[in-house]
Design a protein that fits this description.
The complex is a heterodimer of chains A (115) and B (114).
Chain A: E1 5-7, E2 10-13, E3 19-24, E4 31-37, E5 43-50, E6 65-69, E7 75-79, E8 88-95, E9 105-106, E10 110-114
Parallel strand pairs in A: 2-10
Antiparallel strand pairs in A: 1-3, 3-7, 4-5, 4-8, 6-7, 8-9, 8-10
Chain B: E1 3-5, E2 10-14, E3 19-21, E4 24-26, E5 32-38, E6 44-50, E7 56-58, E8 64-68, E9 73-78, E10 87-94, E11 102-104, E12 108-113
Parallel strand pairs in B: 2-12
Antiparallel strand pairs in B: 1-4, 3-9, 5-6, 5-10, 7-8, 8-9, 10-11, 10-12
The chains are: A mainly beta (115), B mainly beta (114).
C-alpha cells in the first residue's frame, strides 16, 4: 500500500516568505508527526496529532510555525516569515495509534532552502 | 529529561567486516527502542524495535540489536557489512503511555570501504 507522502520534495524560497508543506499519512493511521532534520542535528520533534485530540505543539520552535490536520488525514505545516535558520529537511511520520510503543512510518521529507 | 546519545558521528568499515553502532539512552522507565536507517534523500526506514522480552532483537537486512538495561544501551550490530549498508543510522526512544513522539539520537553516518 501507499506510504507517507510529502510534497513538495524540494522548496526554495526567499527569506520572509511563507511556505506550506504537505503530508498525506498512511490511510487509517490516527497519529501524525512532524520533525525537522537539520544538518548534523538529528531529528527534532515539532508537533504531534492524535485523532481528534488537541495537538501536542510543544516542539514548535516559534510562533511562526503552525500546523493543522484536516479530517484526521492530511496535514499542512506552515512557516510564516521564513528565516535562513528554517532551512532543513521537514519529515512527516504516521503510526496506527499515537503511543510510544508503535514504530513510525516516515515520508521522504521536504527539503526547504531559504535564500 | 529523556535523551539518546550516539557517540560516533561517523564510522568507516570495510565491506565484509563486522559492525557495531552504539546507542545510549536516558529514560526512567523501560523504554521502547528503535533503530532507523536513512539513505540520502530518503525518509527513515525502521530496522528493528525493542519493547520487552528477549533482549536480542532481529531486524531487517541482517541487523540485530541488544538491549542492556544495566548499561542503558541498545547497540546495533551486523556480522558482515555490505556496500549497500552505507547510510545514516538513528537510534530512537519512545515514551510509554499516550505520548507518541520519539526522541532521536543525532545519528551515525556509516561509510563502507570496498
Amino acid at each position: 500500500g501507499a506510504g507517507v507522502s510529502q510534497s513538495p520534495s524540494n522548496k526554495v524560497t526567499e527569506k520572509g516568505k511563507d511556505v506550506e508543506l504537505r503530508c498525506d499519512p498512511i490511510s487509517g493511521h490516527t497519529a501524525l508527526y512532524w520533525y525537522r532534520q537539520s544538518l548534523g542535528q538529528g531529528l527534532e520533534f515539532l508537533i504531534y496529532f492524535q485523532g481528534n485530540s488537541a495537538p501536542d505543539k510543544s516542539g514548535l520552535p516559534s510562533d511562526r510555525f503552525s500546523a493543522e490536520r484536516t479530517g484526521g488525514s492530511v496535514s499542512t505545516l506552515t512557516i510564516q516569515r521564513t528565516q535562513q535558520e528554517d532551512s532543513a529537511v521537514y519529515l512527516c511520520a504516521s503510526s496506527p495509534r499515537g503511543v510510544g510503543s508503535q514504530p513510525q512510518h516516515f515520508g521522504d521529507g521536504t527539503r526547504l532552502s531559504i535564500l | 529529561a529523556q535523551s539518546v546519545t550516539q557517540p560516533d558521528i561517523h564510522i568507516t568499515v570495510s565491506e565484509g567486516a563486522s559492525l557495531e553502532l552504539r546507542c545510549n539512552y536516558s529514560y526512567g522507565a523501560t523504554p521502547y527502542l528503535f533503530w532507523y536507517v536513512q539513505s540520502p534523500g530518503q525518509g527513515l526506514q525502521l530496522l528493528l524495535k525493542y519493547f520487552s522480552g528477549d533482549t536480542l532483537v532481529q531486524g531487517i537486512k541482517g541487523f540485530e540489536a541488544e538491549f542492556k538495561r544495566s548499561q542503558s544501551s541498545f547497540n546495533l550490530r551486523k556480522p558482515s557489512v555490505h556496500w549497500s549498508d552505507a547510510a545514516e543510522y538513528f537510534c530512537a526512544v519512545g515514551y510509554g503511555g499516550s505520548q507518541g513522539n520519539l526522541i532521536f539520537g543525532k545519528g551515525t553516518k556509516l561509510s563502507v570501504k570496498p
